Amino acid sequence: MPVIDLNADLGEDDDWTAGDLALLDHVTSASLACGFHAGSRSVMRTAAAACVERGVVIGAHVSYRDRDGFGRRALDLPAHRLAADVVEQWEALVDEADAVGGTVAYVKPHGALYHRMATDLAVAATVVDALAGRCGVLVAPPASALAGPARDAGIRVVAEGFCDRGYDARGVLVPRDRGDALVDDPEAVGARARSLAVERGLAAVDGSWVVLEVETLCVHGDHPGAERRARAVRAALDEAGVPVRSFTGSTPP
Length: 253
Fold this sequence. Notes:
Blueprint: E1 5-10, H1 18-23, E2 29-33, H2 41-54, E3 57-61, H3 79-99, E4 104-107, H4 111-119, H5 121-131, E5 137-140, H6 147-153, E6 156-162, H7 186-199, E7 201-203, E8 209-211, E9 216-220, H8 226-239
Parallel strand pairs: 1-2, 1-9, 2-3, 3-4, 5-6, 6-9
Antiparallel strand pairs: 7-8
Helix pairs in contact: 2-3, 3-5, 4-5, 7-8
């Protein structure tokens, strides 16, 4: 049975919340907002300390500099500016994690940057170049444009699937403004997690089968009811006999 990681995007409020803390009881990796789309230095430090206490692997959730749009608007930036922004966010989280005895193990871009780097080779190369020599692991969609540049730079790409989001027949996430973009029911989210982990794919919104080879599953921390969905995912994976462990090799919390 393949091992699967369970991650959540956390620290995306002005304060570290009880909901974020509850999610750490279920996930093996946490992608922490680095201040550009959400979060702050104080939230980063508090979140990193909570991860260290629970043995949850820390990742940097970097984005475009776009707090007003929550990082979900694609920005056309010169390569040097984008690279500098990625490095600034990485270094901020590294500093805060180091202060509480933690280590930042990976980078997972957020929102528009996540989707842009998956299809735009120039943006993908910029992100990779910015992180080369700093971080050895990037989380991205399956078959991302990152694959080639990352391989050349010696960076591992971890493919990610979303058990609380709808996919179209191409294996691409449905836009958030559509009614079928989000999956709220915990039982349905758990079933989708099992499908991704065991059957290596899931049903698209049109009913067709989509093959998605992933190593990590995401439960969004900014959706109401996230803790119930994460609990349902862990229960579904445990029932299916799927080992849940961080892609870094750490044991689950």
